[in-house]
């Protein structure tokens, strides 16, 4: 992981990390926010409405209860996250790239954990001598807390990265390869 | 989501992403509100078993009945009754009528019997459990399952509302703050920090 504030902007980043970076980033953030809305709804149902945990299924789970216990859903979201973090990484520069990479690294491990759960669920073979599919860190922490922890520690560097990306210093703006910040509106020193 | 960037006549940068974000948040609230406000259906619980749990009967009954409370809508119902040797005594498919599941029994001799049930509910949840009874020809004729027995069974069920765990609450609070920060970032115009 390096921070390079001196090199000139890369030019071959493609549409996704160039002209389309802001659109793609907004879409990705909407997916992330929707996922968080599910978790916060679930927390509200448990702690404020006092519902039993099995009946606190968030928004989608209210209408499609089978989704909550579907490893496809959990693995699918973990996969979308790791792919999104990877694909959009080149559009970040300077400090924002560092924080985004931190989020990507943590999410990569989170994805591995979900992959382990997914394989166990699909093959019907729980690992580690457990009765149900179990991930590695789940051997030490219960799943709800672990999942919430992972999501938070991935989300934190993401938000910092987006902040620094949309509030760059002039050196970072000079390196920017995307249109997230309108260079024409800000005089950039040569 | 479409997005346009440009400079209007006033020289200010315009973006279609903010109205799109606002629409998304409104849609999220509109979809999420029913999940928060809709009354949850009464949970399904076993209220009574006939023969009652651990009852000793003079002969094998004609059927086993399981009565459930709550909004019972099941897409799959499985009930198996086996004797002490593991041989299945239940015969045919169980029937569901109202809140009661009934399964017919065949011929059986003295000894212990195990009732195993599993219901897959329409909302994706499942409920399962076991009950036992025994047959002893010397036993007096058993009375049908009583209301007292039903109450005793119903009382064994209780809601598992997890205690507010400090770690969960802290993580949720941190996430809520981060969400607000991200929304503020996405709704405000990008800027350069000197």
The dominant shape of chain A is elongated
Number of domains of chain A: 1
Structural class of chain A: mainly alpha
For the termini of chain B, the CA-CA separation is 31 Å
Short description:
Chain A is an all-alpha fold and 190 residues long. Chain A has seven helices and no strands.
Structure description:
Chain A has one domain. The N terminus of chain A is likely disordered. Chain A is 59% helix and 0% strand. Chain A is built from seven helices and no strands. In chain B, 27% of the residues lie in helices and 35% in strands. In chain B, the strands form three sheets. Chain B has a four-stranded antiparallel beta sheet with strand order 3-5-8-7. In chain B, strands 4-10-9-6 form a four-stranded mixed beta sheet, with no helix packed on it. Chain B has a two-stranded antiparallel sheet with strand order 1-2. The longest helix of chain B is centred in the last third of the chain and has 22 residues. Chain B starts with a strand and ends in a 7-residue tail after the last helix. At the A-B interface, helix 2 and helix 6 of A face helix 1 and helix 3 of B.
What topology does this entry show?
The complex is a heterodimer of chains A (190) and B (194).
Chain A: H1 14-17, H2 21-48, H3 60-63, H4 71-87, H5 94-123, H6 143-166, H7 170-175
Chain B: E1 5-7, E2 13-15, H1 17-37, E3 45-50, E4 55-57, E5 63-69, E6 74-83, E7 90-97, E8 100-105, E9 111-121, E10 126-135, H2 147-156, H3 166-187
Parallel strand pairs in B: 4-10
Antiparallel strand pairs in B: 1-2, 3-5, 5-8, 6-9, 7-8, 9-10
Describe this protein with a few key phrases.
heterodimer; A: 190 residues; mainly alpha; 0% strand; disordered N terminus; B: 194 residues; alpha+beta; Immunoglobulin-like; four-stranded antiparallel sheet; 3 helices; 27% helix
């Amino acid at each position: 992981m390096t921070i390079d504030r001196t090199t000139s902007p890369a030019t071959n980043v493609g549409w996704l990390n160039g002209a389309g970076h802001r659109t793609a980033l907004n879409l990705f953030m909407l997916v992330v926010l929707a996922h968080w809305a599910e978790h916060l709804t679930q927390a509200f149902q448990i702690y404020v409405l006092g519902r039993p945990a099995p009946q606190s299924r968030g928004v989608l789970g209210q209408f499609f209860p089978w989704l909550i216990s579907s490893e496809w859903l959990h693995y699918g979201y973990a996969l979308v996250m790791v792919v999104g973090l990877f694909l959009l990484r080149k559009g970040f520069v300077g400090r924002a790239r560092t924080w985004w990479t931190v989020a990507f690294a943590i999410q990569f491990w989170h994805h591995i954990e979900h992959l382990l759960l997914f394989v166990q669920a699909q093959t019907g073979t729980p690992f580690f001598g457990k009765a149900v599919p179990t991930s590695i860190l789940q051997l030490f922490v219960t799943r709800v807390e672990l999942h919430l922890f992972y999501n938070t520690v991935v989300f934190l560097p993401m938000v910092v990265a987006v902040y620094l990306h949309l509030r760059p210093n002039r050196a970072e703006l000079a390196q920017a390869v995307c249109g997230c910040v309108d260079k024409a509106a800000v005089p950039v020193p040569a | 989501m479409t997005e346009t960037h440009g400079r209007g006549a006033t020289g200010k940068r315009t973006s279609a992403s903010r109205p799109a974000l606002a629409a998304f948040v409104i849609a999220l609230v509109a979809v999420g509100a029913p999940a928060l406000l809709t009354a949850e259906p009464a949970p399904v619980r076993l209220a009574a078993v006939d023969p009652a749990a651990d009852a000793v009967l003079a002969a094998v009954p004609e059927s086993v009945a399981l009565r459930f409370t709550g909004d019972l809508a099941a897409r799959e119902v499985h009930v198996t009754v086996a004797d002490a040797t593991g041989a299945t005594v239940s015969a045919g498919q169980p029937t569901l009528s109202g809140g009661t599941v009934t399964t017919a029994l065949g011929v059986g001799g003295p000894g212990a019997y195990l009732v195993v049930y599993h219901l897959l509910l329409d909302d994706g949840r499942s409920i399962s459990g076991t009950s036992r009874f025994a047959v002893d020809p010397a036993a007096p004729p058993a009375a049908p399952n009583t209301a007292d027995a039903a109450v005793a069974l119903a009382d064994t069920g209780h809601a598992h509302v997890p205690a507010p765990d400090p770690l969960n609450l802290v993580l949720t609070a941190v996430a809520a703050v981060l969400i607000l920060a991200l929304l503020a970032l996405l709704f405000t115009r990008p800027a350069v920090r000197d």
